[in-house]
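Q: Convert this sequence to structure tokens.
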Amino acid sequence: MPLTFDEHDRIPAIVQDAETKQVLMLGWMNRESLDHTFATGHVTFWSRSRDELWEKGLTSGNFLNFVSLHKNCEDNSLLVMARPEGPTCHTNNVTCYYREVDREHDLP
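A:
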């Protein structure tokens, strides 16, 4: 089955460290960012705020080196296996998921 993109031609993509299996981040991809990822070997997203390609690490040097791409059972989300060069999060943390949800304070 072909991938199912949303109404904006995007699909959510979870990035996981290929070696440690730690979840690193969630980004959005489209056909152009997927082509760029395969062509360059660097994980590339579609920036929803800037409406342009976003090659992770291009400005910070913290690239995500592409290993493989997997789709879920409903063809509507992706799992990107990558080898990170440095921290993935813009806060300089290894992962964007470094904060645990506090039920009392975080849930409305």
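The helical segments are 31-40, 103-106.
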